Amino acid sequence: MRPSTRPPEPAPGPAPATGDAAAVGPAVRAARLSSGQTLAELSSRVNVARTYLCDVERGRKRPSIDLLAAIERATGRPAGALVEPARWQAAPASVKAEVARARRAERSARELAGLLRAAGGRERGLDELHRSGLLRAWIDRIDPPARATGAAPGSPAIVPLIAEIPLINRVAAGYPREFTDLGYPARIADEYVRSPDVADPDAFAARVVGDSMEPAYAEGDIVIFSPARPVASGADCFVRLERDAETTFKRVHFEPDGRIRLQPLNPRHAPRTVGREDVAGLYAAVSVIKPVG
Question: What pTM value is reported for the model?
Fold first, then answer.
């Protein structure tokens, strides 16, 4: 018997991936090699020219769904192993984007469920995540505020003027302590910071001292507060107390009995509850500037 002059083909490899990234041509070639068939043999079984099947494997031709189904049967592949990836590749970009968004949402939901389980279950866990700052960190990670521009694709960007925000002094992320604005008139300070997303002309900033608001805020962070922002229960606030003009930086909770709980995020610090008459002002945090390094 004369030895075959046909060049050897690569040994059969693992079954091709059937997910979104599976390319039709390589998947067809892998199915053929796994079945041990030559191009001529498979092309004869599925009733197409050998050169056409070669072009399909090289990505030069896009096979029909009927041909892919015939190749599945001829190579012993499961139904849909070649057809479904081909249908996905032919799907409109808008459909792919919607599926990607749905998958991100599903992944985020699983992450939140895991956080709730670790925090003690759905009922107690949600409040615990909120108190610790982990819920806010999770929200900011899956939907960063900077990403929500609301502009249509291709529309010109609107660049707002960046306000100069007075950095008036320090605010204690610990127990309330004496505060002073150094006697400057409103909007006047020795130092200023800028934030493009804060439009309140009465906004002010202060450096954090202490560790009671960790992990969300560390000592040295500059937090910007807006008197124009409504304060809801659970907001992180600059709190000015009536007694001796003390201030502190805490997450505030409005209790059913009318009092206000000043809640640290760091569990090593105890909360403090004060009467509403003891609070001279609550100013919601709207932005934070963290030092590099």
Answer: 0.43
